[in-house]
Amino acid sequence: MKQLEDMMAESEQRVETVKIPSEGATLTGKAYWPKGDPKSSVIIHGATGVPQLFYARFARWVAEQGHLCLTYDYRDFGASKQTHPRNSSATMADWGLRDQQAAFDALLKLADTPQKHVIGHSLGGFMLPFHSNLDKVDKVTTVACGQVYWRDHHLPYFFMVILFWYLLGPIATRLKGYLPGKALGLGADVPAGVYWQWRKWCTSPTFYSSDIGGVLPQMNPNPYKGPIKIIGFTDDETAPKASIDRMEPLYKDAQIIRQTLNPADFELKEVGHLKAFTKQNEALWPEILEVS
């Protein structure tokens, strides 16, 4: 009965396909509208290799709370894929700078709401300090987001990291011309340029600092000063505490709230790096959106 009610509620929601121009690419997004005038506008910047469809349940729930929610896919990925990943020149900088900024600008055009809330999952949170449109952002929440260095990880997950960055990942990417994420159990294929830049940052103790002033611009001289909630999980092996600690200096002018959530406190079995947005973990959603 509950499943039938959920299906009926979803069918009543207005979901609009949005085309987003982004400096050399066109992104495809979905706008989830509330029944009345939206109380605020929310955008979800997704994690690396995670399609927007993964966030659909959460986005529908956000709309049910009275907010407009925009999801989208990065260039040459998911619904925004216009060529095979092996033919793509996309980099992580393209995804985190050009595409994230373009998507946020698209959110602003959809509706004029009192508040604009950015939710960044993993990659979706650590590129924001470079964005030029930070003055339009009223609130930020990062979820399982950290400046990850390969030595941060603990056994036995550490061995998987070594394979991904130093053996299977590089070999497979060179052979195929893209990261065959599906074959490697990651769920989605990723352009080679995204993988190589991702690898460079995660195998450097300074993450992307050496690229600033080169393939990355200088950080916005007018940094974000509003409220930001940095959420981590005790069972997240991909973004351990040490990596999340490195987020705070990126937002040193902001009003920071740190939360390290234990799944057991919400009567959940596991959350890890990706599952905060899944239906079975919806008990976490008010923490992410901060519904009052």
Automatic annotation (TrEMBL):
Pfam families: Abhydrolase_6
InterPro entries: AB_hydrolase_1 (IPR000073), AB_hydrolase_fold (IPR029058), UCP037442_abhydr (IPR017208)
GO MF annotation list: hydrolase activity
Gene3D superfamilies xrefs: alpha/beta hydrolase
Location of the AB hydrolase-1 domain: 42-242
Membrane-spanning segments: 155-173
Keywords recorded for this protein, A-Z: Hydrolase, Membrane, Transmembrane, Transmembrane helix
Name used for this protein in its record: Predicted alpha/beta hydrolase
